[in-house]
Amino acid sequence: MALVYSTETGRICPDCRKPLSDCTCKAAAKARPIGDGNVKVSRESKGRGGKTVTLVRGLPLDADALAALGKQLRSACGSGGTVKDGVLEIQGDHCERVMAELTQLGHKPKRVGG
Ligand SMILES: [Zn+2]
């Protein structure tokens, strides 16, 4: 039975109580979506020396997928940008373009802010 070996290995993950060799916590944490699916697109220029950036928040994607989407959006906008703390940042005002791209990908982005 599955329970037998856990007492023999001695090394058990404190989170899932499985032997470390069977533990998937780390992989699960990495694959966990960062956002809640309420995708919000906004434009911001405050505190950035007057430079406008387009921000996308709430994407229900894990870190890798978010990075890939960021790359896709940046190339669609022909602009640079970053991913920071689960927020996609694209340099310049590209709200319309980003909204269109996200909608095409099956998201339901909302325009927020100015
Ligand atoms: Zn675990």
Automatic annotation (TrEMBL):
Signal peptide: none
An example Gene Ontology molecular-function term: mRNA binding
GO terms, biological process: formation of translation preinitiation complex; regulation of translation; translation reinitiation
InterPro entries hit by this protein: DENR/SUI1_TIF, SUI1, SUI1_arc_bac, SUI1_dom_sf
Alphabetically ordered keywords of this record: Initiation factor, Protein biosynthesis, Translation regulation
Keyword Protein biosynthesis belongs to the record: yes
Pfam families reported in the protein's UniProt record: SUI1
Domain (SUI1) ranges: 40-106
Residue ranges that the Swiss-Prot or TrEMBL entry lists as coiled coil: none
Family classification: Belongs to the SUI1 family.
Protein name in UniProt: Translation initiation factor 1
Spans traversing the lipid bilayer: none
